[in-house]
Structures
1.
Amino acid sequence: MSEAILEVNGLTKVFGTKKSQHKAVDNISFRLEQGECLGIIGESGSGKSTTAHMIAGLLKPCSGEIDYKGRYLQMIFQNPIRSFSPRMNILDSLCEGLLYQSDLPRKEIRKKALEAMDMVKLPRDYARRYRSQLSGGECQRAAIARALMIHPDLLICDEVTSALDVSIQAEIMQLLYRLKQSMGISLLFISHDIALVSGISDRVAVMHDGKIVETGDTMALIENPKQDYTKELIASVLPVYGEKEKIMER
């Protein structure tokens, strides 16, 4: 077994008051290996995004442990347009974090931003554009470029393609896969779409009602699911793709 970059043990999150509580995440545990992509799938309300937000430090767990062994992690969100200020151009948005968090000269930071744009295949002449001048797919590429500015060891991708057209979804997935392969970045990929997750993930964890109900190697889980809920998720995409094997080709 390779070294884990992330270990989650007994993670729990409860919302509400003592009189009316909702256990969004219920005592889940998993690990993510260095350079691996773990897909977390489940329907809306299953607890997968709450899990992602706790790992990213945006929500405080009620109990449990998150042991992140990397130096930096970044999170990419579902709505790329909302993640950019309407008052800042793309270049300034990419540079903003490092301008406040590092001692690098402004010129060097701008150079890094342009290089990050190159990595995600966003034309450099888009640097002076604003979010309203970019498509959803272009904004998501810019969001990925911004995440790469600090050279993270882990990218948390929370429904990053759900707001995009199918053709653009494929482009973003290919980009993330290429970055994983070329940079050795670990990915935590959150989605309701098991077909989409299967195309990039080494392993899959299935969440339902706040619990992880099944986990395993992606192809093995798709070909031989154990839990009824997992079977239902797979069956829901079979009419679209025709047969199990086509899930892996998306």
2.
Amino acid sequence: MPCSTMLYVKFWRGCKCIFRLGNEIQKVQFIKNEKEKEVMEKKIRFGLIGIGAQGGAYAGFLTGKGGVQGIPAPECPPHCTLGALCDIDPEKEAICREKYPEIPFYKDWKEMVNSGDVDAVVTTVPHYLHPEIAIYCLEHGCHVLVEKPAGVYAKAVREMNECAAAHPDVAFGIMFNQRTNQLYQKIKAIVDSKELGEIRRSNWIINSWWRPDSYYRQSDWRATWGGEGGGVLVNQAPHQLDLWQWICGVPSKVYAKCLYGCHREIGVENDVTIVTEYPNGATGSFITCTHDPIGTDRLEIDLSGGKIVVEGSATATVIRLKKSEAEMNATLSMLDVMQLVQGNAAKSNEMFTVETFENADCWGAQHMTVMEDFALHILTGAPLLAPGSEGIHGVNLANATLLSSWLGKEVDNPVDEDLYLEELNKRIAEEGLFPVRQGK
């Protein structure tokens, strides 16, 4: 069997039913008549804008010609196909024409959008371009799946969201592929159900994003204020920033310490510590960097009725208290506490139960699951796992983090959009590599 997730297996075995998974199958829609069967036999033609590392991998996945060398490639989703390719780089054009001679190639993305060769596009381009391309697609009736992050600054992302709201018949999604991880889906379901009570505190250490200087030298725009819009907060960490707010909620206050060019020859942030406060009084912390070759990926969520710990985005431990922490506080003696702290098994069994579960995804399978989810949304109207409008939450959090670091004080979230853009433009001007930004 090819490298795949459980969700893949369900999608891949014919079109008799549609499965959407959380911690278990939540929805089964049977094909009731020939008309529905005809719809489910259709494929959405995806156009890829930008054929770099990510876009090139998607092209390989969608055609069955492989993705990244040395990494097992997932099967092409049953309702997706490659409709066209687009890039301004002559070298990329030559590679595409040789590898995919049957696929139309465009140098102008607007021409591709209006060509009739594609039903939807994926924006695998520098981050600043995501809102611009998405707005054009939405206004011209072309479904759009934006890569993370939704954009660099919240003002442009909000304008993109407003455009999407004005065109509800055009599908708008975002490539938050880690939302397909069944481990995180189950955790979200547990938290949302309130079975463990209210969140009191969450902590995420995500230092498994090691990048050497050779990575930053791949492109002139990489790790620049004017070209990329920042460092780890706009490139690697958006995955976890999205999951953090998706599961734990959107914070109302942010205080952050960022280091710029820490152990690297770059000028943007690559070492970040965030402290957050939530409307219910809960707190959180988020730590990330790109200079730790060993790396740590550990999420802890403390709740009034238990605790959730995730290691490596692959193994989760859910500890359910038999009494809430408030009840324990009111009733436990110091002897009980000593026995519990010293690891007394009998006492522990009296206090809580422990459940563990795992997830094993291969790289690329999650991305294809998001594309299949997007295609099924277009074909059937099924709800999106990652609606494009939700991308603004992670952008706001990243903006608030940098603004707090620049100003040296706690800031509100959502961020002051105009103030953030003003401060960002100061750094773009000082850098002197790209023009400052004017809104969109």
